[in-house]
Amino acid sequence: MAVTQLVGAKIHRREDPRLITGHGHYIDDFTRQGTAYAAFVRSPFAHARIKSIDITDASKAPGVTSVYTARDFKSQLAGTHPAAPAFVAEKKYIPERFPIAEKEVCYQGEIVAAVLAETRGQAVDGANLIQVDYEELPAVMDTEKAMAKGSPLAHEGAADNISWDLTYTGAEVSDAAFKEADVVVKERILQNRLAPIPMEPRGVLAEYETYDKKLTIWMSSQNPHFIRLFVSGAMGLKESQVRVISPDVGGGFGSKISPYPEDYLVPALSRLSERPVKWTETRTESIQNATHGRGQYYDVEVAAKKDGTLLGMRMTQYLDVGAYVGTFSAFQACACLMAGGAYKWKGISARTIGILTNRVPTDPYRGAGRPEATHLVERMVDLVALELKMDPVEIRRKNFIQPKEFPYTQNFGLVIDSGDYEKALEVALKMVGYEDLRKKQAELRKQGRYLGIGFSTWIELCGFGPSAATAPATGGIALVESAQVRVTPTGSVIVYTGTHSHGQGHETTFSQIVADQLGVPYDSVELRHGDTSEGTAFGYGTYGSRSLAVGGVAISMAAGKVIDKGKKLAAHMLEAAEEDVVYENGSFHVKGSPDKAKAFGEVAFASYGMGLPEGMEQGLEAVAYFDPPNLVWPFGTHIAVVEVDAETGAVQLQKYVAVDDCGNIINPMIVDGQIHGGVAQAIGQALYEEVVYDDETGQLKTGTMIDYMVPSMGEIPTLNLDHTITPSPTNDLGVKGIGEAGTIAASAAVINAICDALSPLGIKHVDMPASPDRLWHMMKGAGK
Amino acid sequence: MIPAAFEYARASSVEEASKLLNKYGEDAKVLAGGHSLIPLMRLRLAQPKALIDINGIKDLDHIKEDGHKLRIGALTRHVTIQNSKVVHEKLPLLAEVAGEVGDNQVRNMGTMGGVVAHADAAGDYPTIALILDAEIVTNQRTIAAKDFFKDLFTTPLAADEIVTEVVFPVANGPHKYIKFRRRLFDWAIVGVAAQKMNGGWRIGLTNVGPTPVRANAVEEALKTGAKPEEAAQHASDGLDPAGDLRASPEYKKHLARVLTKRAIQQAQGQ
Ligand SMILES: Cc1cc2nc3c(=O)[nH]c(=O)nc-3n(C[C@H](O)[C@H](O)[C@H](O)COP(=O)(O)OP(=O)(O)OC[C@H]3O[C@@H](n4cnc5c(N)ncnc54)[C@H](O)[C@@H]3O)c2cc1C
Fold first, then answer.
1. Shortest CA gap A714–chain B (Å)
2. How many domains are contained in chain B?
3. What is the mean predicted confidence (pLDDT) over A422-450?
4. Do B261 and B232 meet the contact criterion of CB atoms below 8 Å apart?
5. Mean local confidence (pLDDT), A120-133
6. How far is residue A186 from each of residues A92, A192, A300, A384, A784, measured CA to CA in Å?
7. Is A296 in a helix, a strand, or coil?
8. Residue pLDDT, tens place only, B97-152
9. How does residue A700 score in pLDDT terms, banded at 50, 70 and 90?
10. Which letter does DSSP use for residue A579 in this model?
11. Which residues line ligand 1 (CB under 6 A)?
12. Cystine design at B253: which of B26, B135, B159, B236 (Cβ 3.0–4.6 Å)?
């Protein structure tokens, strides 16, 4: 098969037939002989002291085999919840976290007891019979007030509620820019707290084999190897004694990267009870306990010249950490490093503050830091344009980093590998029919109707690695990626990747790459992942749009090594010099004489036979690790067109155009699918979704999907997509990540469109979610 | 999300259902489409000891024309009402409303009797029943809609009483139901029904209080020749809606006025 046939082709996802017909393998599909079911008793309070726990009734309940509280786990689990130092150097305070509370609960949903029973229903019934005597403590719910001296504390005995406070660049860095300014615009920009809502909630099935001292964990994770590392450490086991299997995973969006209390407790329960133990999260448990995303606000100031030249920015990120510091929580501070967006600035001053509250912890959620950065810079640029009565397109064109300036070192020293921002913008403008839209807008305004056009000329950084940047951030393990390519005697190929697919379609795209590179039929390539006892020694998981740009490259490198060995063997078989053998379209032949050839399958078979060249070992397989030299930098332009109902404040999203550039495309259909999902999620943030807790009591008010409003098919307009292609110089495939792009781009486009629509009323800024009630109140208050 | 344990019995006639209800007493509940009851049980907001499944009672699933009346069996699913030729001809407003209840899954399961008996403030049929002076027929008596929706989730139904039919008058003049909601499958934040009948307007509001509301002041104003936009100003008269995550009380009252105006205008435009 020719090299160009599969890569770049719209191939249907190989995994879909099983997934959409209900033949996938999710956690709740697994049970082991003799399984006991776990249910957890969770704190109904945001903050309270535990005075006593009475398990008498629960212990006697039908089917209940045992009840456990914190003390029972002391012998089972050691250490505290891992929190990666990430970008935060001046760390102040990471509260200790044991997977089950003993004396104090710090968020609604924190576990205080566990019940094992013969059925899931009996376990839940048993849990309901446990009597916990709490003494309620004041809950810290407002991040701004939490910073004040004398504020109640999220943790008793803490010095304050500040988890971190780090100034990346002080005011002096932007002083000159602000002195030169003709205009300065200021805004406070909120980032609503979001629940990840994976279609499959979490679940853990653990089986500890008492005699072999082996632990197998089936769980819904994006990151099985890291879970093995953390759980083995906490349980006093060697990594080799623990096997983590994450089969089909029904979405994660970042919420299945970090370890959770249940990931430790369920294996510990299995060791304690000497039975396999299973726990499946309910939807309400998921909304309540899966790490949330965003939950921030920003104070931003931007300085510019009269002609629209951007000069400087000063920004502070206030991040609601929640009750404990999420494993990768501090990563969200990358919003500071990305605050400059696609533009050139003289100076940016940036500071991040992480604030502890009595809510569930926040952690990366699709985009993690980059959506926030995009939202703030795209909003601020529009505010400058509004102030200067400039077209939002003009101000962007004027300030873009230009194609000839790449690689471009931005204000924080990060090197943007490539880009052509204006090209994507031009394509999008044509698609949306910009000139006509502005005319239509003017006409409708005369009739008292509010049409708005919003832009997001987004950029991001993704594909984590490189080792030098990431090892310090994780506490030692460099984020690279591993791959193993094994060729069987009959020439079929098994590929192992250390990434994990939970909706990204790796089985398809990675097979496309390997089939092309090895010249073997697509169907003879099998992609495997998600089992720590298979493939390479370590894998790094899927998050930060890294799978293709790091993992895909590793696979390609391993396939290259297979070809190299194949060449040596083919040369021997063809009695030619190795340098004279070329590999093309699935066969090795002597340069200049294509009929003197050995097919890939023949060479594979021979590699398991006798008479190999001197010193060559049997077999045809290779391992590769890819340590990328830089991050990759996708970009694009999204344009949203909305009409705001003048009477009700309802937003109608009329048109959505997205032109994205993720370098070379392996499978356009999968890329489009990622954009679709990402944009829908960001529309969710912009218009619908928000985790709401009661300000006083800290009770979660959005605990079901009736109240936590994820948009459905009916709310998402047809998305008009196109791409520009600017290959990444960072890797041999020329690829960049696309998994988070939609989420990174879209909230800004939608909100900018709403602000544009309402600008005749003097409304400059709208917070998310832009609900009709919120907009109606703003419209009513406008001009007063 | 895991309901408490319960007994289950399936009835094949109304008499049998009533007997079973008596047998289990206060803690038994009728199970129709299950699309209000089961979610409540999963959240353990309801913990009935027994469910009496009435889905096997064939003669409760019907739509009958009866002179100037339309008799809708309690087990008639939303989807049946939505697609019924008779309902389209004789009471198109009801077909329109049925088509806007929940999503396909809800419409395939949920029933007329279930909505009425459940008496959720955001239920759509109760508003229509109220303004059209419909009657709720049970195995024991007939109750006028205006006497039926007493309070939030509260009706005069006795523990062993089963709704068998809801009887609507025929009305096929100008009509409109506007359901303001955030998502396609959501309940109404506010709903407004307008139906021209016997020369006058019937205007009703959904989810602006614990029970459906008939907008008498709007009807009166229209009768005295007020324009829709003028009459609609009275839609919020006397309302005291509770605020929730989707809408403040103030906004709900505003919506009542705006949507009333639109409903009348759109009905007139038909
Ligand atoms: C996602 C979702 C969206 C929805 N959106 C809407 C909406 O927009 N508008 C709307 O009106 N509804 C909506 N519903 C509710 C839906 O219409 C329900 O089906 C309906 O409220 C109840 O009808 P049921 O047949 O499912 O009753 P069930 O859930 O089976 O029963 C509800 C209650 O009524 C009692 N009951 C049922 N039948 C009888 C009877 N014949 N006699 C006496 N008592 C009886 C039961 O005991 C129970 O207490 C929605 C539901 C869901 C899940």
1. 5
2. 3
3. 98
4. yes
5. 97
6. 29, 19, 6, 9, 21
7. strand
8. 999 999 999 999 999 999 999 999 999 999 999 999 999 999 999 999 999 999 99
9. very high
10. G
11. B 29-37, 39, 74, 101-102, 106, 109-111, 113-115, 117-118, 120, 123-124, 157, 162-163, 185, 187
12. B236
Of B2, B4, B247, the CB nearest to A120: B2
- What's the gap in Å between B111 CA and the centre of ligand 1? 6
Which chain A residues contact residue B179 at CB under 8 A?
A: none
Q: pTM to 2 decimals? A: 0.97
Which of B5, B183, B187 shows the shortest C-beta gap to A712?
B183
Q: Ligand 1 center to residue B236 CA distance, Å?
A: 27
Q: Which of B31, B35, B141 to mutate to test the pocket of ligand 1 (most atoms within 8 A of CB)?
A: B35
Mean pLDDT of chain A: 96
CA-based end-to-end distance of chain A: 70
Q: Which residues of A touch B187 (CB under 8 A)?
A: 706
The values of phi and psi at residue A618, to 5°, are: -65, 165
Residue ranges covered by each domain of chain A:
2-22+481-626, 31-137+200-250+256-289, 296-463+630-781
As a whole number, the mean pLDDT across chain B is 97
Closest CA of chain B from A683, distance in Å: 12
- Is CATH 3.40.50.720 the classification given to domain A296-463+630-781? no
Tens of pLDDT, residue by residue over A132-171, are 999 999 999 999 999 999 999 999 999 999 999 999 999 9
SS3 content of chain B, % helix, strand, coil (to 5): 40, 25, 40
Q: Do B182 and A688 touch (CB under 8 A)?
A: yes
pLDDT in tens, A346-361: 999 999 999 999 999 9
Strands A310-322 and A347-356 come out as parallel
Query: In a 10 Å sphere around its CB, with 0-12 CB exposed, 13-18 middle and 19+ buried, how is residue A783 labelled?
Result: exposed
By Cβ distance, the residue of B1, B185, B245 closest to A692 is: B245
Enclosing domain of residue B41: 7-53
B-chain residues near A688 (CB < 8 A): 182-183
Residue B56, min C-alpha distance to chain A (Å):
27
* Domain at A31-137+200-250+256-289, CATH from 3.20.20.80, 3.90.1170.50, 3.30.930.10, 1.10.1060.10: 3.90.1170.50
Give the C-alpha separation, B157 to B117, whole Å.
8
Structure confidence by residue, pLDDT tens digits, A538-581: 999 999 999 999 999 999 999 999 999 999 999 999 999 999 99
- Contact A688/B245, CB-based, under 8 Å? no
The CATH code of domain A2-22+481-626 reads: 3.30.365.10
The whole-number pLDDT of residue B23 equals 93
Distance from the Cα of B128 to chain A's closest Cα (Å) equals 23
Query: Using omega within 30 degrees of 0 as the cis cutoff, is the peptide bond preceding A466 cis?
Result: yes
Handedness of CA A477, A478, A483, A484 (dihedral sign): negative
**Which CATH number do you get for residue B12?**
3.30.43.10
Which residue is closest in CA terms to ligand 1's atom 46?
B30
Please report the pLDDT score of residue A89 as a whole number: 54
Confidence of residue A784 (pLDDT cuts 50, 70, 90): low
Report pLDDT for A473: 78
Same domain, B67 and B158: yes
In angstroms, the CA A631 to CA A65 distance is 51
- Nearest protein Cα to ligand 1, atom 39: B114
DSSP string, A175-244: HHHHHT-SEEEEEEEEE--B----SS--EEEEEEETTTTEEEEEE--S-HHHHHHHHHHHHT--GGGEEE
pLDDT for residue A1 is more than 50 = no
What is the C-alpha separation between B215 and B207, in angstroms, rounded? Answer: 13
Atom 4 of ligand 1: nearest residue by CA position = B102
Taking an 8 Å cut-off on Cβ atoms, the answer to whether A284 and B246 are in contact is no
